[in-house]
Design goal:
The complex is a heterodimer of chains A (about 250) and B (about 270). Chain A is an alpha/beta fold and about 250 residues long. In chain A, α2 crosses α3. The two termini of chain A are about 25 Å apart. In chain A, α5 links the parallel β6 and β7. Helices cover about 35% and strands about 25% of the residues of chain A. Helix content of chain B is about 85%, strand content about 0%. Chain B is globular, with a radius of gyration of 18 Å. Chain B starts with a helix and ends with a helix. The chains are: A alpha/beta (about 250), B mainly alpha (about 270).
Chain lengths: ~250, ~270
């Protein structure tokens, strides 16, 4: 397992030093230290409840923490878990994406941003349902809408919380393709993505962070995604399951 | 009827109906979408304690009811944001306690005769001071809600996304609860403690059934609220029915018709 250096060197986009979060008696994060460099595609892995989402919330300033986080990104695009929003909300896909430009739900005057929002939807292959109500969209279609929202203001850091949850393999493959294409077009953009899928991390992420409240492993994916890390993060049964899913 | 419209009391009543209907629709769409429909009933019934206290102390009832309603709204917001007590439980407690305290204070003040006016409203008895009070509250609520509409809507749609977009969600929530509480207590004068929730729920629910974007629904709800209030007020004269009850029945009828049409196969 690679060791984490004392001094990161260079000019990372995000650094965390000794980040800890407690919810009552429960420790969500314990002394977490890692970095995201410009151009990184980082996979964040760990079992359920291991603090992955909490870590993203700390970077976004949504959760109080102890320690230090330096975020040099000018614009951060965020794709939350889509299960958090109200499916019955009377909104259209193009309105959701426009809210990424204006940081508010679009009123009459904000319709001038619709062409930009439609361009972002086209970029993720979602032009066909730009005018469709959210309630009529499938999980995969919603993920594309949220991804378009995150990309519309051309972020230099993208944080994605399980972007492939609840969608089929083909839809999942498309999302990774869009992310990689976005990064190819803008080489300095960093992507950090929470995933449960070891195989996805191995194939798409150049770096991985394995978390189970504390950092189990951090570094290049081909060095970090080891059996030892798997066993430490998931335990023996989880390890077997993860290996099984690799071949599934 | 034309002669009736020239009378100052009717003009004041029409203005009050428009203001109440507008406020109910504007805030009602958020209450419905946030599953807060019970808030209107809770704040209005809770504010009845303020009305009773005002009468007991011999001061203007609404001078006491407004801060009481504001306090109730902010307490509900605080407990909801802390997440340590279910909101319907808090509203249920304040609803019953406020009503009981109001009845007791009204009785001690020897003002039982005015109980009906506060429970069911007295739009035709609205004076210039009442109208000025309602106009002031409407202006204050609109001054908060109209500029923050886009951010309030984003929070209503996806709270976490709004927070990540830099929206000050907690501050906005407190502002919304305060605005809703002020609007609710201002409307009590028109339709009373018992019926006021209808203004904040039924037009918004009807507009929601009609569909469209959230902006269109907000505008429809405000228009429907004002239109049904004015129509109910004008209808009450020929049919000689209590105004508040007639407005609420009219709102319910419009809702039922729209639901029937929208639910029709094909």
């Amino acid at each position: 397992m690679p060791t984490v250096p004392d001094d990161w060197g260079g000019r990372p986009l995000v650094t965390t030093e000794g980040v800890s979060v407690r919810f009552g008696d429960v420790t969500a994060l314990d002394n977490v230290r890692f970095k995201i460099d410009p151009g990184d595609f980082l996979a964040v892995l760990g079992p359920n409840g291991s603090g992955k989402t909490t870590l993203f919330h700390c970077i976004l300033g949504l959760t109080d923490y102890r320690g230090t986080i330096v975020n040099r990104a000018q614009r951060v695009g965020f794709v939350p878990q889509i299960k958090n929003f109200d499916r019955s909300f009377p909104g259209k896909a193009v309105e959701v994406v426009t809210s990424g430009v204006t940081d508010r739900w679009p009123g009459w005057r904000d319709r001038r941003h619709f062409p930009r929002a439609r361009a972002a939807l086209a970029w993720v292959g979602a032009s066909d349902y730009a005018e469709r109500q959210l309630a009529a969209l499938s999980g995969g279609q919603l993920q594309r809408v949220y991804l378009a929202r995150a990309l519309v203001h051309e972020p230099d850091l993208l944080l994605l919380d399980e972007p492939a949850a609840g969608i089929d393999r083909a839809g999942e493959y498309d999302i990774y393709e869009y992310l990689e294409a976005y990064q190819r077009e803008r080489p300095g953009v960093a992507i950090a993505m929470i995933t449960h899928d070891w195989e996805v991390a191995r194939h798409h992420a150049d770096k991985s962070l394995i978390l189970n409240h504390r950092v189990i492993g951090f570094g290049p994916s081909n060095q970090v995604l080891t059996e030892d890390c798997l066993r430490q993060a998931f335990g023996h049964m989880g390890h077997a399951h993860a290996l099984g899913s690799n071949h599934g | 009827m034309a002669e009736l419209l020239t009378m100052p009391f009717m003009q004041r009543a029409l203005a009050a109906a428009v203001l109440t209907g507008f406020l109910g629709g504007l805030l009602g769409v958020f209450l419905i979408q946030r599953r807060l429909a019970f808030l209107a009933a809770g704040v209005s019934h809770g504010s009845f304690a303020g009305i009773g206290l005002g009468l007991f102390l011999g001061v203007a009832p609404f001078a006491v009811a407004v801060p009481v309603a504001l306090g109730i709204g902010l307490v509900i917001a605080f407990l909801r944001l802390r997440g340590n007590l279910a909101e319907d439980t808090v509203v249920g407690i304040l609803f019953a306690a406020g009503m009981a305290l109001g009845v007791l204070l009204l009785s001690l003040a020897g003002a039982n005769a005015s109980l009906s006016a506060y429970l069911f409203g007295s739009i035709l008895a609205i004076g210039n001071t009442d109208l000025a009070f309602m106009t002031g509250i409407t202006a204050a609520v609109a001054a908060f809600t109209v500029p923050t509409w886009g951010r309030l809507t984003l929070v209503t749609f996806d709270r976490q996304l709004a927070q990540a977009s830099g929206v000050r969600v907690r501050l906005l929530d407190y502002g919304f609860y305060a605005a809703a509480s002020l609007a609710i207590v201002a409307s009590v004068k028109v339709v009373g403690v018992v019926l006021v929730a209808s203004f904040f729920v039924v037009p918004a629910a009807t507009a929601r059934l009609l569909g469209g974007t959230f902006l269109a629904i907000t505008m429809m709800a405000s228009s429907l609220g004002a239109l049904t209030a004015v129509t109910g007020l004008l209808l009450s004269y020929p049919v000689e029915a209590p105004v508040g009850a007639l407005i609420v029945l009219l709102q319910g009828a419009v809702f039922a018709v729209v639901m029937g049409l929208r639910g029709r196969p094909g």
